[in-house]
């Protein structure tokens, strides 16, 4: 899948958007920290993630992207408000096999090979001898999807950072999830690998109809998304397509548009404070 540079991400065609979003949030609030001083890090936000498309969650470091993603996959405590994922409340046991989640730090075993890592996680997903053939096929396909077939026998500990990230992504692809939640998957990757990964995300959305929620603090990656959620300080600053955002902020790039919205929000906050 990654050997397809002919298909620029911008030109890939997302599946038609069905009515029900993959993720629906309303009044979503998250508090973090223990003891006497838990802080509100996500503050009563509302947003939708449309199905079959790539939604970029963008914003500066510390704005709450990882917390929001953890809430969507159901691993975050102290979440209140409405958060529905694939038609179920976030964290519902039925969602476990329907969501693939890649955390910021690649979660692979360094002392196992790429294939052994995948075999292990495949067995956790679908245990038992009866499923052995299906597991083997799923593992082979996931390794091919992330273009690591030639390194399948290499120890994960001997791979580059980008290759290790791709092993994590392959693990997330194992169960052919309907929703992929990817927390800054391109951090630290060189431009070629970043482009290849974005091509892969577009392939996955277009060929499988999967929904992808992907975070980044690199604004130029926003241009590669179908839809954007721009976050700042625990709030959603904008939900738009890159085109609509550029156009309504009269900006040449999403980054410029984002900065305009930040300035506007700051001005409004100051005016509010002096009232
Ligand atoms: N375990 C924790 N306890 C208390 N506060 C936390 C904890 N983890 C994160 N936070 C705070 O929650 C806020 C949001 O953090 P989060 O990791 O979600 O941001 P982010 O946008 O993903 O940042 P980055 O891009 O740097 O990963 C930050 O202010 C952070 O300090």
From TrEMBL:
Signal peptide (UniProt feature, chain positions): none
Pfam families reported for this sequence: ABC_tran (PF00005)
Record keyword Transmembrane present: no
Region of interest called Disordered, as start-end residue ranges on this chain: 1-20
GO MF annotations, alphabetized: ATP binding; ATP hydrolysis activity
CDD domains: ABC_DR_subfamily_A
SMART domains: AAA
UniProt keyword Nucleotide-binding present: yes
SUPFAM superfamilies the record matches: P-loop containing nucleoside triphosphate hydrolases
Domain ABC transporter: 23-258
Keyword terms of this UniProt record: ATP-binding, Nucleotide-binding
Descriptive protein name: ABC transporter ATP-binding protein
């Amino acid at each position: 899948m990654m050997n397809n540079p002919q298909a620029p991400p911008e030109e890939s065609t997302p599946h038609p958007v069905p009515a029900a979003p993959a993720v629906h949030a309303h009044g979503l609030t998250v508090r973090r920290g223990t003891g006497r001083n838990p802080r509100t890090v996500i503050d009563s936000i509302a947003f939708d993630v449309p199905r079959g498309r790539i939604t970029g969650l963008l914003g500066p470091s510390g704005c709450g992207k990882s917390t929001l993603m953890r809430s969507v996959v159901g691993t975050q405590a102290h979440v209140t408000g409405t958060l529905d994922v694939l038609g179920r409340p976030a964290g519902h046991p039925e969602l476990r096999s329907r969501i693939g989640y890649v955390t910021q730090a690649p979660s692979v075993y360094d002392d196992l090979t790429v294939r052994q890592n995948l075999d292990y996680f495949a067995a956790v997903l679908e245990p038992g001898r009866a499923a052995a053939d299906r597991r083997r096929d799923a593992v082979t396909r996931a390794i091919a999807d992330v273009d690591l077939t030639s390194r399948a026998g290499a120890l994960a500990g001997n791979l580059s950072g980008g290759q290790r990230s791709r092993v994590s992504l392959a693990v997330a692809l194992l169960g052919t999830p309907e929703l992929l939640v990817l927390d800054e998957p391109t951090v630290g990757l060189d431009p070629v690998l970043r482009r290849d990964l974005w091509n892969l995300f577009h392939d996955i959305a277009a060929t499988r109809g999967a929904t992808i929620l992907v975070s980044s603090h690199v604004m130029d990656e926003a241009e590669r998304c179908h839809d954007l959620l721009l976050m700042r300080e625990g709030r959603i600053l904008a939900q738009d397509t890159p085109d609509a955002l550029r156009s309504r902020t009269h900006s040449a790039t999403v980054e410029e548009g984002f900065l305009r919205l930040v300035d506007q929000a700051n001005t409004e906050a100051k005016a509010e404070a002096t009232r």
